[in-house]
């Protein structure tokens, strides 16, 4: 008996190896054809002939109807319509509606009925044989079918309980909600079937301008341990997704307190690795980052993007401070952040590698908390000086009264900013006491805006480039924006004969590789 089991295992292992070596498109089409043939009888078994089902077929459970909605990345919910916070069942409008059991026309009691029963039994036998494939192989096939025809995967999930369970892992892996009604409907469905929460890995909430006044957001969820007075139903549904890895939120600011409570308490989202937060406020105002300040204490979060957030000088105003976090990339998009508060937060990451900060040339509303000096923000990053590899500050309104001293940033390889005056500081009445301190391992230096408008700064920059062999010995690429007057000749001459390459781009061109030109023969 053990010999037969060993042989069967080798056959399955060989089959898995052969399948994974086939081209993906060919395998997807082959699996698509197989699943279409196998799923055919499942649609015919829902009619008056249900008594003729094959005895080995598992009955459909209560989860089957939810596959009509196809919760997946870039897929909309359309089965339920939310009215005043409650769902009303209506016919589905998605492609999956074509896959529901259709009533069969009446058949004669003669040979036609016998032929139909024989065909149905044959198809059911195919389903049973297909279900016996290893779960790993079935998941691989389902992944490919899902990429080609999601509605067919919904259909085959109705064949039996095993295929239904495996298809769930693919269909519910990534979700996109582009309306609050979709999210609320799914929250109620998830409360009835909480096991699906653990299957979800990626969630996008994309309805920042939606009106929420007609929805009842504080409807209780029986299985939630959160206090209904502190967190709404939509946020509680997120707390059930215990294996969530990516969370992208762009919703009205009314949902900020509830979502903030997810991060200000015990971490149900322990597996979260990437998070993006944006809360649309009236008049496009900044939203208060204090509501979600504990997102910075998440132990495993690696990438965090904040859009149009405001943080005052209080910073992380809590007695419970983390020892270290896993944050690697922090992006601040059009934010109003106090530099002292930023310095406070930068104490937490054990290995921050990238810092991105950008804003428009005319911030609206006006910045209240942010400093107007780029030097203040660079110094706020000093707690991460030993690990930072990339600093990108695209903030045209930031001035530079002081020269940047960045010799302590020993791991920096890429530095990007708007103007040379932000790096060297504008010329003032007082004499300069310090020269620029390039990061010792700097490889790429880029300026987004026009340079050369300050003659003293231009001379200092040219001198630094001439002495780059010891001031920036690892510099490989210098990228500068070329205005109407072109690059200052002093800069061009200083770059000749050096080990690094000078690349230029015009300000009226897009920032892509096709618009960057080699400006000299280094």
UniProtKB/TrEMBL annotation:
Top-rank lineage group of the source organism: Eukaryota
InterPro entries, alphabetized: F-box-like_dom_sf
Sequence ranges of Polar residues compositional bias: 85-106
Stretches that traverse the bilayer: none
Annotated stretches, region: Disordered: 42-127
The name this protein goes by in its record: F-box domain-containing protein
Lineage: Eukaryota, Fungi, Dikarya, Ascomycota, Pezizomycotina
